[in-house]
Every structure is written in C-alpha cells, then in structure tokens.
Amino acid sequence: MTKVNIMKKMPEKVIIPLKQHDGTACDPLVKKGDMVCEGQKIGECGVYNSASVHSSVSGEVISIEEAPHPNGNKVNSVIIQLSEEPECVDFNPKDVQDSELADFIKDAGIVEHYGFPTHMVLKPEGKKIDVVLVNATSSEWIGGHYDTPSQYSSQMLDALKLLMRASGASKGAIVLRNDDLESINAFDGLNYDGKPITVAPLVGKRKINYYFKDMSSDIVVVSQEHIYGKKILDLFTYNVTGRKVSFGCVPTDVGVAICSVKSAKALYDAVNAGKPYIETVVSVSGKVNNPQKILVKIGTTFKDVIEECGGYIGEPGKLIANGSITGVAQYTDEVPVSKTTTSIYVQSADEVVRGESVDCTHCARCVDVCPVNLIPSRIAAMSDQGRFDECRQMHIMNCVECGRCAAVCPSKIHVLQLIKYAKNSIEKAYEDLAPKESPANLKLGCGCSGGE
Ligand code: SF4
Ligand code: SF4
Asked: Cofactors per UniProt (predicted)?
C-alpha cells in the first residue's frame, strides 16, 4: 500500500485553530503562558454543532489570536511553542456505552474532511439514521496507516460497527472505488466475525439493500465508480442506497449517515487507544523536492510540512490546500494543517503566470457542466463584487464544490474560489446573526421522507 511517512522534525510552534469544522467555534480552555500536554483539550463549546479541539503537542501557549486558516479566513487560534521534553496525556482505551458515543465523538474532536462534526452526521437532531456508509472511494488517507492490508480492512469494519452503534443504525456498508484494487484485495476474502467478506459491485439496480439480503448480513462491503467532488454526498447516497435526496436536503434527511475513512479511523483510535483527533495524513505534491503522503500534527504550518518534504523546487507561485481544482489558494505558507486538510499542492511561479485569468467570454461552458444547474459565471461575478445576498438568491449554497466550472473555464477564472469565498462569507454572516434571530428565520425546512 502507498507509504505514509511520519513527520520526523517537530515544528517549533503549532497554530491550532479553535474552529476546524462547520458550526460554532470553540472557546479556549487555556490562556497565554499555560503549559499544555499533547492530547489535552484546549477548546470546547457547549452547543451541539461544534467539536472539541486538542493540543497536538506539548509546550507553552504563547498566544491566542486570530491567525490564518486554510479556508482563507482568519480564525481565533491557540499558538503553542513546543517544549523540549514532550509530555503526553495518558491515552487509554475507553469503554463507551452506545448512548454515550455521540458525545464521546464530539469530545474527541472528530470531524468529517468536508467540515461537518461527525457526531452530527451520526446523530442529527430530530432525524433517525438507519444505515451508515463509510466512503472509502477517496482513499488518499488509507495507505500506510496500517502495517498490513488485513489490519486496515478489519479495523475499518470494527470502526463501522462503532459508527453504527453511535448512530443507532442497524445496517452499514463500506464503499470502495472499483479501480482501487489494493483496497478491494484487502477486504475480499477477509474472515471477519467468522464469515468471509466478499466485495460486491454496485451495478444498475443492485444497491446495498440487495446485498444485505443476498449475503444475509447487516454489514457489507461494496465497490462503485469514483464520484468526483468534495460535497457530492447526495449523488453518492443515491448510487449506494437508491434513496433520493431532495433538492435542499442532505443524506441524513433520508436516514443515511456518510463518514470518511479518516473519521472512522479517528473513532477507532479514540475508543481503542483513547487518542483524540490530533494528527492527520496530508498528501503533498507539485513543486516540492520530495512529494509524499505524510502524517503530521494538526496545527503544523504548511511551511514546516513542505520543509519536511525537501522544500520548494524553485520559487513557489501558489499553494493550494485540498486539491488543485477544488481547493483554496493560500496567501501564506504560515497557515496550519487543520482537521479538514487533505492535501497541499505547490505550483511554480511559471505555472501561475500561465494560469492568469482574463475576462469572462460568456461561453456558458461552466453552466453546461454544473451538476446542480447553477450559473457559476454569474455567481462568481457577484461574489467578486461582494454581492453575497444576490449569490444566495442564485442558490449558491447548493454548490457541491465539484470544481467542474473552474476546470472547463477557458478564461481561467477562479470560479470555484469566488464561489467558496461567497459561501464562507454568507455562512459567517449567518453565524453572526444567529444569536439575534430566531433559528426558524435562518433555516429552510426540508420535506424529505426518506423513501427509496
Ligand atoms: S458551481 Fe461549479 S463547483 Fe459548484 S456545483 Fe456547479 S460546477 Fe460544481
Ligand atoms: S466558462 Fe468561464 S468564460 Fe465561460 S461563461 Fe463560465 S466563467 Fe465565463
């Protein structure tokens, strides 16, 4: 399996954002001058739509201030200078009852890579989950986490059971990509709970329900094509379960909780080793001397990660977090790796100059490819002018951030980046409004019934 290296040189300082998820930011539990240990909780928030934050290192809190965040904004962050003799909170396995698991996940700070706190996916307020899916089709975090393929597959199945227990779901599935032979081979033929696992293909009308019955099992492993796009969960839900997620709804509205391999692994580690979410695997590529997948402490700056990868090749032009098409360009490399950072891509100065944008020609290619029927060119133009209300009226919040509009644009306009900027600004405005407004005025209702 693809090797994942462990960062050998510890950074001198880490910047740990107090908000690494969609929802409410944490309040700091420490202050300047405090000494903290690796694994110590340093931020929490009492409301449900938040996840705790832990220190990934031992050291002294030198500041709590607004600092750059990979989402492009500034976020209140705890800055910790590492001590020479690291101390660690004792990590011990936890015996957690089913009814306590959701709170346990919140407390361990586990979030999905697209930003949603995992406990909210598993136990959404006012909804019932009956099936949990582990989406292993974006497998960039898988390789190298494990010594052997069977260790990976059996841990993932154990993690799926934990996720099912947390959600109360009676059924669960691990979904692999049908061209990911390493993962398919890791599961196929594995003897788990006294039964051999068979990886079943999702073809035509054969969705997971077919295999639950056919294999007389509440847990199955299936494979399907890779669906491109960070937030295309609705399409994924339909492909795997056959349940349609109506416009404006989310998979949990039809009883489906979708978790990533990363959060499944984090939950496994939290229960079996007592370890909170303090490190993550990042894929570093582009103009660096030694591109690789690397396990880093959350809060490590991109600069330190790139140095560990042998440094830049030549003059860096652009740094992009989370994918060259769908990611966010960074204005500094002093930005920290957060729980939602999956990759860092470095472009050379030459590549950036070649990629300079020109005026929109209104060719409508971006409109043709948008899977959710938006008018990306128009929304991007509104965003560029700061007209976020108009973006909202044009249903910007339905954008699934697939990046197709930016990829096809002959004028090289940063369509996705402008859309994300507006979405972030709208979300931020709503957060600021929330304490003053009735929630009923801020959220649209959903008529999903969950039928197949
Ligand atoms: S606006 Fe662009 S990024 Fe958003 S869904 Fe449409 S094509 Fe994808
Ligand atoms: S693809 Fe680019 S140039 Fe064409 S309409 Fe969309 S934003 Fe404008």
From this structure: [4Fe-4S] cluster
